[in-house]
Amino acid sequence: KLWMADQKFANDPTSCCDPVESSSSSHQLPSYTMSLKVLDKLGPKSLFDSHCHLDFIMFWRAPHMELESFDQFVHAYPLMGHSSLEGFITNFCAPKLWMEHLVSPSPLIHSLLSRPSVFYTIGCHPHFARELLISRNYKQLELLIEKAGSSCVAIGECGLDNGNKNNVKMSDQVEVFKLQIKLAIRMNKPLVLHIRGAEEEAISAMEQVGVPADWPIHRHCWNDEWTVCQAWLDKYPSSVVGITPLVTFPRTAELQKVAKLVPLNRLVLETDAPYFLPRGGSANGYLGHTTKEFSLPVHVANVAAQVAAIRDCRVEDVLRASRENIARVYNI
What we know:
13 helices; globular; alpha/beta; 8 strands
C-alpha cells in the first residue's frame, strides 16, 4: 500500500477546489454511516459520479501500475466494479494528457471510454490555460470535440482560478475561458465550470461572450458562500451545483450550509477523484479502498450520505435527485 501525500504529485492541480473554511469551532457536522453493507443496501446502479478524473489517477497517481486495459484497474481496485455504481463522467482537462491519450486512443483509454456507463468531457483547466494559447492545441481540441461521439457530453472543466496555486495570469485565463465558452455554444455542448476566487471575472467573461441564461452548466466543486450560490443559481437557472467529498470535512461549514439550502433539483454529487478522500462514515468509510493516493467514483456514496445527514433526509432521495439533474444537464 502506498500512502503518498498530495504534494508529491507535481503534475496535477492539487487541491484546486479548496473551500471557504470556517473558523468556528462550535459548528457540528452531522455524522453519517457508510460501509460496504450500506452500499449493498442502496442497490444496483444507485450511484453516479458527475465529475472525476480517471486520467489523473491512471497516468499521474498510479503510473507504476503500467495499465494496458481499464479492466486491470478494476481488478486492482474491485470497488470500481461494485454493482451500486451505474457510471461516471470523467473530465479530460489537461491538454498534455488529452493530446497524448485521446488523439490516438491507447488500448487503456479505448477500454475505458468504450464502457457504456462511462462518459467524458474535454477542456482546459485554468491551471493549464497557457497550453491552450498555443493555436495547434486549441485546433486539436476543436477536432477532438467535432469527432467525438455521444459519450463526449460537455466541454470542460474550464474557468478561472485566482488561488495561490495557480500561476497563470488572469488575462490569459480569461482568454482561454472565452475560447472554450464560444466552442461550447458553437458545438451545443454543456459547460463544466471551475471558478475559484474569481466570481465577478467569470460572470463578466460569460456575459461578454453571451452565454444564454438557460445554458446547461455544471458549476463543479462549489467552494464559496451560500449568498454567492444563491446569486449564481438565480442568474443561471438551468445550472447545477456540484458537491464534493469536501462536505465531509469538519471545517467546511459554508459548504455544508450550501449542501443544506441548495434546492435538490439544482444539486449534483461528485467526487472530483483523485482528490478529496471522504472523511467520516465510520471505520469502514473508505469502503474497503486500500490506498490514500486517490479517491474513486464510488465514494460519491459518502457525499450522498453526508448531504442526507445535513439535510435530514433519505440518502436515496439525494441520489435520485442528483441522477435526475445529471440526466437533465448532460442528457444522459
